[in-house]
Design a protein that fits this description.
This protein is mostly helical and 311 residues long. It contains ten helices and nine strands. α4 packs parallel to α8 (262-273). The longest helix is centred in the last third of the chain and has 20 residues, at 281-300.
């Protein structure tokens, strides 16, 4: 089964499309600079972070260099990792590529990233989104999702990958906005690649430890409740994208012909959406079972998540 689509890859900041990584659902933005761009996490070549020995000394200033609020026992000093200057917690609430940054550096880095124009490796906070199946998801995911759905009975969906050369060529074609003809199996593989190359994983660095602990909860109903609570803490575009992905995986698992169960789907997808910022081989081994467990729980209970995307 093949499905031909032109993948659009216009990249722009979506006003109001999601919360920043420093915010929770229901909280207000702390500043205009720390809005939807604060979820840009992950390694980023070309960004010069200042080493600690080059930071401004703590005692050099007595008040925040942005808002002017005085420092105290309750209002601590924080350094921007890019410029090294001293600010309050509110004025450094943004996180860019896993680093605390001030509002000015957040804006500068956002401009740099948003001009990149790529699909793969682009921040989820900056990609174009559109309505799809009651959600608002990145355009590339919508179109790849449709391709996968054109052949849900194809064996090995999400498990069997194309050759490296074919995957590389497909990625190049997608980035160029060319028409591509993909089998359901290859479209599923491209979704995995797209997820794997996100600078910030779908379930976020910030919530990684919480999701791992949730995966260790033995009582199934308690694990469901905890997983839903954690997903509701995701920025809006992350939550909608996760719901779209888990719904697709749930529908894949419901098709007996492709020989993919929700456990198998979780096993092959979990490493792409739930990972630590600093990889550690021992921790990866220890976390493998709970990470798969929590992702399977989310796949099997995606109905619970979808209800929160319409709030």
């Amino acid at each position: 089964h093949t499905h031909t689509h032109t993948i659009r890859h216009t990249q722009k900041v979506q006003n109001g499309s999601g919360l920043g990584m420093g915010e929770r659902r229901g909280s207000s933005a702390t500043s205009s600079a720390a809005g939807s761009s604060t979820s840009l996490l992950g390694p980023q070549p070309g960004v010069d972070w200042l080493s600690k020995d080059k930071w401004m000394p703590d005692d050099a200033v007595q008040s925040c260099l942005d808002c002017g609020s005085d420092f105290s026992l309750l209002s601590r000093r924080h350094h921007c990792r890019r410029c090294g200057q001293v600010f309050c917690d509110t004025c450094t609430s943004a996180r860019m590529y896993g680093q605390r940054v001030c509002n000015a550096c957040c804006e500068a880095l956002t401009r740099s990233v948003s001009s990149d124009g790529t699909l793969f490796g682009a921040s989820l906070a900056l990609v174009e989104v559109e309505p799809y199946r009651g959600l608002h998801v990145p355009c590339v995911l919508r179109q790849l999702d449709e391709m996968v759905r054109s052949g849900l009975d194809e064996e090995g969906l999400f498990r069997v990958s194309p050759s490296h050369a074919r995957a590389k060529q497909t990625k190049t074609d997608l980035e160029a906005g060319m028409e591509v003809s993909l089998s359901s199996r290859d479209a599923a593989a491209m979704i995995k690649l797209w997820l794997r190359e996100m600078p910030e994983p779908l379930l976020t660095f910030e919530l990684y430890d919480d999701f791992i602990e949730a995966g260790r909860i033995g009582v199934y109903t308690d694990r469901i409740e905890r997983s839903v609570v954690l997903c509701r803490q995701l920025p809006s575009v992350f939550l909608h994208t996760a719901c779209c992905l888990f719904r697709l995986l749930s529908d894949v698992a419901a098709n007996a012909h492709n020989k993919m169960t929700s456990d198998t789907c979780a096993t092959v997808v979990a490493p792409n959406i739930l990972r630590e910022q600093q990889l550690d081989a021992t921790r990866c081994r220890d976390h493998n079972i709970p990470s798969v467990t929590i992702v399977q729980t989310l796949i099997d209970n995606v109905d619970r998540l979808e209800g929160y995307c319409t709030e």
